[in-house]
Amino acid sequence: xxxxxxxxxxxxxxxxxxxxxxxxxxxxxxxxxxxxxxxxxxxxxxxxxxxxxxxxxxxxxxxxxxxxxxxxxxxxxxxxxxxxxxxxxxxxxxxxxxxxxxxxxxxxxxxxxxxxxxxxxxxxxxxxxxxxxxxxxxxxxxxxxxxxxxxxxxxxxxxxxxxxxxxxxxxxxxxxxxxxxxxxxxxxxxxxxxxxxxxxxxxxxxxxxxxxxxxxxxxxxxxxxxxxxxxxxxxxxxxxxxxxxxxxxxxxxxxxxxxxxxxxxxxxxxxxxxxxxxxxxxxxxxxxxxxxxxxxxxxxxxxxxxxxxxxxxxxxxxxxxxxxxxxxxxxxxxxxxxxxxxxxxxxxxxxxxxxxxxxxxxxxxxxxxxxxxxxxxxxxxxxxxxxxxxxxxxxxxxxxxxxxxxxxxxxxxxxxxxxxxxxxxxxxxxxxxxxxxxxxxxxxxxxxxxxxxxxxxxxxxxxxxxxxxxxxxxx
Length: 475
Known about the structure:
Its cofactor is FAD; (6R)-5,10-methylene-5,6,7,8-tetrahydrofolate. The chain is of the alpha/beta class. It has helices at 37-49, 71-91, 102-109, 124-136, 152-155, 163-177, 204-209, 227-240, 245-248, 261-265, 271-280, 286-309, 316-319, 322-330, 342-347, 353-365, 370-383, 387-401, 408-417, 447-460; strands at residues 8-12, 22-26, 53-58, 94-98, 113-118, 140-144.
C-alpha cells in the first residue's frame, strides 16, 4: 500500500536537516488523522530518520481570517480539528495549533524540523502559502496530494473544456490511484518533545467563542465536523442512499445524497476512501456506483482543474468563457420581469416559493441539493440587473451560507451557471445562448414534499420559517 509517486512533489530539493528534532507536517487541506497520504509519508520519513512527527495547524483569525469565512464555517472546521487532534494523539503524533497563517506556523516550526511535509490544495490562497513556505524554509520540503483521487496535473496539463474531455483522461488512470492506504505505525512518539499547542482544540466551542469573526451566519446542527462524523455519513449513505442513487440523485426529496461535500471541502474524509467504499458496496447496482463516482471524481476534479489552470477564477471576466460573456452582453438590456436586490435574495423574498425554500435550506442549514443549486443559480442570473452583478451575487451568497462554500466546486459551479464547461443552446431573452433552466425542471421531483422537508430542517435548527414562508412575495 505504497503512496503513489504521482502524488508526491519535491518543493525544495535538499537533504533532511541532521540536527532536526522531528518531521513536521502542515495540516492544512487534509484535516484528518487517517487515510491521509501526506501524514503517512511524514510518518514513513520520520521512522526512517528515527524521529517523531509533529503536525501543525495555523488558525486564521480577526483581520487575517480566511476570506469570506464566518462562524458557520469556523465551527465546522474546529469540530473537525478537535477530532483530528484526538486521532493524532492516539497515533503518537504531536499537534501544535496557533493563531497564525499556515505559512507562518510552518516556517516557524520548520526551524527545528529535519524536513517538512505539506498537503495540497488548488485555491490561489493555498498556492500563495506554499510559495511563501518554499521561499523561507531551507530544509527538504515534500508535498503530497490527498484532496483528489487523481492529481490534477497527472490527469491533464491544461484547462479542460468540459467533463466530456476530462472524463476519459481520468478513467484511463484512476485505477492507479484508487488503492487503499494503511496507517503506518509511529515508531517514535512525540510526547517527549515539550511542544505545546497555544490553542486547546479539545473544546472547539470555546475556541470559536474566543475568535474575532463574522457571527451573522451562525453554526448549524444539521452537520457536525470531523472525520468520525464523515465516516458515519458515508456508512449511512452506503446502507440507505447508494442503492437507487442513479435514478434518485436528482430528486431532493428522495434523500439519496451522501451529504459528504462539507467533509470533502474541509479535508475531513478522503475521496479515495469514499470511492473504494462505493466500489465495494454490494447492495448497489453498477449504474448507481458509476453515477456516484462520476460526481465524486469526474465533476469534482473538473472543478479542481478549472481553479488550478484559471487565473482569477473568482472573476466573471476570467472564469466565464468568451462566447458566454458575448451572448450575455448582447442580452444585458433585455426586459427582466422580476428583479430582486441581493438582500431580497438572501432573505428568500421572491415570487417563487420553491426558490425561496432552496434559499432557506442554504441559509439556515448550510446545504442545498445539487439539482436545486443549478436552478437557484440560473434564477439569480435571470433576476439580477446584469450578468456581472448576477455572477457576483451568486458567488457571495454561495460562499456566505454553504458549509462547502469557498471551494473549487463553488467557483466552478457558479461559473457554470454563466456558461463554463457548457455549449451554446437555443437563444432566449436575458440568457442569449447560455443554458436556461425553467420552472418546468421542478416537475422532475416532488417540489411540495421538498418544501415540507425544508420547513422541518429549519425548525430543527431552531429557526422555523414563517407560516407563509413558502409563498413570500417581494414587498
